[in-house]
Design the sequence.
C-alpha cells in the first residue's frame, strides 16, 4: 500500500503522458455528464415535486426504478443502439467519449430527478401556497422554488458526479477502454489489475479518490458559502 | 365585494357549501366556527389555492391577498422577503416597525421562530395591495404583545387601502377587538352573518348559541 502511494505520487510528478490522458478523459466525461444530468434532471425533479397531477405517482415510481438501473444494463442498451446493427449506427459514436457521456447522462439523470423531487415535494406545498397568496406569477414562483433548492441542487450534483467518476460498467461497454482514447480511471484500474499490475491499479485508485475528494471539498465549500 | 356561491368536496364529502355573499369594503369580517367547520377551506378556495367544485375561480372580484396558517419563510433575509412582494424600502421599514421586527431584518427568514415567522409573513403580505385580504389565523403563533401589534397593523392597512378583510380566527376576543362583521360556519354551512355584536351577543341559531356558550359569550 505504501509503495502504491509512493508510486501514485511518482506517477503524478513524472507527468506520465498516458496518465494525464486518462485523467483528462475521466474529467471530461465525468464533469460533462454530471453537469448535463443536473441541467436536465434538476428542473424535471423540481417540476415533478411541485405539481400534483394524474400519473405523477407513476412517473415517480418509474424514475425510482431507473435510479437503480445496473450500469451494465445501461451499457448494453446503448451498445445495441449504437452498434453496427443498431438504429443509430450511422452516428458512429460507439467507442468514443461522446457515447460514454450519453450513457452516463442516462444513468445519473434519474438520480438527480429523484433527489430534487423528494426535496421539492417537501417544501413546495407551503412555499407555493405562500407565493400564490401574494399573487406571484407562475414563473416568479418557479424561480423562487429554484432559489429554495440551491442547497439540494449541490447535493444532487455531488451525487451525480460521484456516480459518474466511479462508474465502470457502462463506460467500459460503450467506450471499450481504448488506451489514449476512451480509457478512464476506473477502466484503467481494471486493466492494470487484470494484468497483475496491482501497484499501478492501487496508485490510480488513490488518484481517483483524491480527485473525488477535491471536487467534494470544493462543492461543499461553495454550498456552505451560498447557504449563509 | 361580491363572492359567488360555491361548494367544495373532498373524497365525495361536501366540506363546504358557501352561498352568494357580499363583503363590505373597508371592513373586517371575522369568520368563526369550530374545527372542521370549513373556515380554512373557505380561505383556500377564495384565494384560489384549492378549486371549487364548480371551478368558477375567481370567486371574488378584484385581487386577493392570502396569508396561510403556516406561512413559508423564503431562504433569504427577512428584509429581502418583504421586498419580494413589493420593492418599496420605506414601506418595508414601516411594516417592520409596526410589528417590531426591525432587529430581524438581516436574519434569514427560514431560521426564525414560529412567532417571528408569523410576524414576518404578515408584514410581507401587507407590502402588497389587494381588494380582498384573507388572513387565516394570522396571530395563532404570536404572543400577546405581537398579537395586539398585528391587529393594529391590520386595522391600519384597512384604513390605508380600503380593502375588505376576511379574518379567520379561533379567538372571539380578537373578533370583538378588530372585526366589524362576523360570519359563523358550522359543519360546512354558513349559519349566521351580521355585525360582530349581533353574532357574539345576540345569535339567533341554537348552534351559534351553543358554540358561543363554550367561550362564555352568551
Sequence:
Amino acid at each position: 500500500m505504501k509503495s502504491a502511494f509512493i508510486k501514485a505520487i511518482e506517477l503524478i510528478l513524472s507527468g506520465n503522458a498516458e496518465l494525464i490522458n486518462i485523467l483528462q478523459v475521466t474529467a471530461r466525461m465525468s464533469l460533462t455528464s454530471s453537469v448535463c444530468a443536473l441541467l436536465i434532471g434538476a428542473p424535471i425533479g423540481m417540476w415533478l415535486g411541485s405539481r400534483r397531477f394524474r400519473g405523477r405517482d407513476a412517473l415517480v415510481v418509474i424514475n425510482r426504478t431507473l435510479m437503480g438501473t445496473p450500469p451494465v444494463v445501461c451499457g448494453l442498451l446503448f451498445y445495441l443502439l449504437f452498434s453496427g446493427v443498431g438504429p443509430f449506427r450511422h452516428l458512429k459514436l460507439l467507442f468514443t467519449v461522446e457515447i460514454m457521456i450519453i450513457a452516463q447522462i442516462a444513468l445519473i439523470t434519474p438520480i438527480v430527478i429523484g433527489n430534487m423531487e423528494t426535496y421539492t415535494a417537501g417544501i413546495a406545498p407551503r412555499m407555493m401556497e405562500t407565493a400564490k397568496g401574494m399573487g406571484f406569477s407562475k414563473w416568479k414562483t418557479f424561480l423562487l422554488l429554484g432559489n429554495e433548492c440551491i442547497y439540494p441542487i449541490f447535493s444532487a450534483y455531488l451525487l451525480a458526479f460521484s456516480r459518474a467518476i466511479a462508474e465502470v460498467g457502462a463506460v467500459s461497454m460503450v467506450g471499450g477502454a481504448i488506451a489514449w482514447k476512451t480509457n478512464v480511471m476506473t477502466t484503467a484500474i481494471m486493466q492494470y489489475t487484470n494484468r497483475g499490475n496491482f501497484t499501478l491499479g492501487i496508485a490510480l485508485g488513490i488518484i481517483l479518490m483524491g480527485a473525488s475528494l477535491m471536487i467534494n471539498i470544493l462543492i461543499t465549500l461553495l454550498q456552505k458559502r451560498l447557504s449563509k | 365585494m361580491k363572492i359567488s356561491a360555491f361548494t367544495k368536496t373532498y373524497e365525495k364529502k361536501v366540506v363546504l357549501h358557501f352561498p352568494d355573499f357580499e363583503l363590505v369594503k373597508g371592513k373586517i369580517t371575522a369568520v368563526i366556527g369550530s374545527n372542521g367547520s370549513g373556515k380554512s377551506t373557505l380561505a383556500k378556495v377564495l384565494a384560489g389555492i384549492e378549486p371549487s367544485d364548480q371551478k368558477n375561480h375567481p370567486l371574488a372580484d378584484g385581487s386577493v391577498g392570502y396569508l396561510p396558517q403556516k406561512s413559508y419563510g423564503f431562504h433569504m433575509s427577512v428584509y429581502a422577503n418583504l421586498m419580494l412582494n413589493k420593492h418599496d424600502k420605506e414601506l418595508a421599514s414601516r411594516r417592520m416597525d409596526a410589528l417590531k421586527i426591525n432587529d430581524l431584518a438581516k436574519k434569514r427568514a427560514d431560521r426564525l421562530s414560529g412567532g417571528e415567522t408569523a410576524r414576518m409573513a404578515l408584514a410581507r403580505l401587507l407590502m402588497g395591495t389587494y381588494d380582498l385580504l384573507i388572513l387565516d389565523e394570522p396571530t395563532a403563533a404570536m404572543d400577546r404583545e405581537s398579537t395586539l401589534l398585528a391587529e393594529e397593523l391590520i386595522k391600519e392597512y384597512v384604513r390605508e387601502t380600503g380593502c375588505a378583510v376576511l379574518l379567520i380566527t379561533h379567538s372571539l376576543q380578537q373578533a370583538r377587538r378588530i372585526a366589524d362583521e362576523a360570519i359563523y360556519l358550522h359543519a360546512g354551512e354558513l349559519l349566521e352573518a351580521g355585525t360582530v355584536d349581533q353574532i357574539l351577543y345576540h345569535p339567533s341559531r341554537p348552534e351559534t348559541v351553543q358554540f358561543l356558550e363554550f367561550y362564555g359569550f352568551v
